[in-house]
């Protein structure tokens, strides 16, 4: 009972160690952050897990995400903004979580990164709660009344204003109880907020979050339960298949081999058709590259061919005259068939080079595609090697037949 009444915290990376001094908790967070990200403002997507036990707080799971950094500093990478954005989207895209969009009161709400990201994944505002901070730092004569009354940029779940401790308060060891009293006094004494003071502040935010999260869980639980049951049935079906499994059974090995070969065939077909589950954003490959060879590279090779119209006309004239022999060549509407075929065949022969070159390029891309597909078989080197050898051999055989046809 004494342990339950005492507030304490535990870190996942310090299992078994209980922190009762929350200044030590803050220091441990700073130390662990420096250990994971370095000493010069680096970032990491690895979370620091902290669990707080207290009889004075409600049950909530909070994920504190970083704000968007526009310009990299210290050891931060050049694409720091995109990295942080991807990290945030990874969490807020989950349908079973609420989004706490925190925005300072002394900035333009229309430029809020938090609200912008929330709107991307929650356009209807079903999971978004607005939080306005730094109300005590607004310029004299200004306030955030319209925002807090949900009139300026309305959210379905509205906004809640809070006043947190300043860095000076933290350095001065101002405790949480004193900070909450100061926050309460601020809202009760401010002329623009006193009429809504009972709907402002950190304690009210805790209460709303707990209530909203409970409601959200209740709303999403049926679909979540249905999904779990579906997954459970699927897993049970898979387990049933292997219930009488014997590692030495050759039929099992044959079945596994056929499944892997079949999967290779599906992957190869998808890469050629362009319907694969992974899209390469760095270069053209598979069917797209083959399509480019046919529609761009081959026509380009044809355009590069030298064509002498004067020479061609002379050849046509000689061909027609040679067909007539000693007979007089009279003007006629149609070119003699033999002359036409002789000229056309000679021109078609010139296409052989570009055609063979295109065949080589297509076959090389097919072999590259085979190598990419066999990467999934890397766990079985012999199977990977044999699959690549057999399929590549078949492709080269088709290449020779194609060249013979050309």
3D structure, described in words:
Helix 10 (287-304) runs antiparallel to helix 13 and helix 13 runs antiparallel to helix 14 (381-405). The relative contact order is 0.05. This protein is mainly α and 406 residues long. The protein has helices at 2-5, 22-37, 80-92, 113-121, 145-148, 167-171, 176-189, 202-241, 250-273, 287-304, 309-324, 337-349, 352-374, 381-405; strands at 8-11, 50-53, 99-104, 128-133, 159-161. The protein folds into 2 domains: 94-245, P-loop containing nucleotide triphosphate hydrolases (Rossmann fold, 3-Layer(aba) Sandwich), CATH 3.40.50.300; 250-405, Four Helix Bundle (Hemerythrin (Met), subunit A) (Up-down Bundle), CATH 1.20.120. A 3-stranded parallel sheet has the order 3-4-5, with helices on both faces. Strands 1-2 form a two-stranded antiparallel ribbon. This is DYN3 protein. Pfam families: Dynamin_M, Dynamin_N. GO terms for molecular function: GTP binding; GTPase activity; microtubule binding.
Brief synopsis:
The protein contains 14 helices and 5 strands. It is mainly α. The protein folds into 2 domains: 94-245, Rossmann fold, CATH 3.40.50; 250-405, Up-down Bundle (Four Helix Bundle (Hemerythrin (Met), subunit A)).
Layout: helices, strands, pairs:
Blueprint: H1 2-5, E1 8-11, H2 22-37, E2 50-53, H3 80-92, E3 99-104, H4 113-121, E4 128-133, H5 145-148, E5 159-161, H6 167-171, H7 176-189, H8 202-241, H9 250-273, H10 287-304, H11 309-324, H12 337-349, H13 352-374, H14 381-405
Parallel strand pairs: 3-4, 4-5
Antiparallel strand pairs: 1-2
GO cellular component, one term: microtubule
Pfam family, one: Dynamin_N
InterPro entries: Dynamin (IPR022812), Dynamin_GTPase (IPR001401), Dynamin_N (IPR045063), Dynamin_stalk (IPR000375), G_DYNAMIN_dom (IPR030381), P-loop_NTPase (IPR027417)
């Amino acid at each position: 009972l004494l342990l339950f009444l005492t507030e304490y915290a535990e870190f996942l990376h310090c299992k078994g160690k209980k922190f009762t001094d929350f200044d030590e908790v803050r220091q441990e967070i700073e130390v662990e952050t420096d250990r994971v990200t370095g000493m010069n403002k680096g970032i990491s997507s690895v979370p620091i897990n902290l669990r707080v036990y207290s009889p004075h707080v409600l049950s909530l799971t909070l994920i504190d995400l970083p704000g968007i950094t526009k310009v990299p500093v210290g050891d931060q990478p050049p694409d720091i903004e995109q990295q942080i954005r991807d990290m945030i989207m990874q969490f807020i895209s989950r349908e079973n979580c609420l989004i706490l969009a925190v925005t300072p009161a002394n900035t333009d709400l229309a430029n809020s990164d938090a609200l912008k990201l929330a709107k991307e994944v929650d356009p209807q505002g079903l999971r978004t709660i607005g939080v306005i901070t730094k109300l005590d730092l607004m310029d004299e004569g200004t306030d955030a009344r319209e925002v807090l009354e949900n009139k300026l940029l309305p959210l379905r779940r509205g906004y809640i204003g809070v006043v947190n401790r300043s860095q000076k308060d933290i350095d001065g060891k101002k405790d949480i109880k004193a900070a909450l009293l100061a926050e309460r006094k601020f809202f009760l004494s401010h002329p623009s907020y006193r009429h809504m003071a009972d709907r402002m502040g950190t304690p009210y935010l805790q209460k709303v979050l707990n209530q909203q999260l409970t409601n959200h869980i209740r709303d999403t639980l049926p679909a979540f339960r249905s999904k779990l049951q579906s997954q459970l049935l699927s897993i049970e079906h898979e387990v049933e298949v292997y219930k009488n499994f014997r590692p030495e059974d050759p039929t099992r090995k044959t079945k596994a081999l056929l499944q892997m070969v079949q999967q290779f065939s599906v992957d190869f077909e998808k890469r050629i058709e362009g319907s694969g589950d992974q899209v390469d954003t760095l270069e053209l490959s598979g069917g797209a590259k083959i399509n480019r060879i046919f529609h761009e590279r081959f026509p380009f090779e044809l355009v590069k061919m030298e064509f002498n119209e004067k020479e061609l006309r002379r050849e046509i004239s000689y061909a027609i005259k040679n067909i007539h022999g000693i007979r007089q060549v009279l003007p006629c509407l149609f070119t003699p068939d033999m002359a036409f075929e002789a000229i056309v065949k000679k021109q078609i022969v010139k296409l052989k080079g570009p055609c063979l070159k295109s065949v080589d390029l297509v076959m090389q891309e097919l072999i590259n595609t085979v190598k990419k597909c066999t990467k999934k078989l890397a766990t079985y080197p012999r199977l990977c090697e044999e699959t690549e050898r057999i399929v590549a051999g078949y492709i080269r055989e088709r290449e020779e037949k194609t060249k013979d046809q050309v």
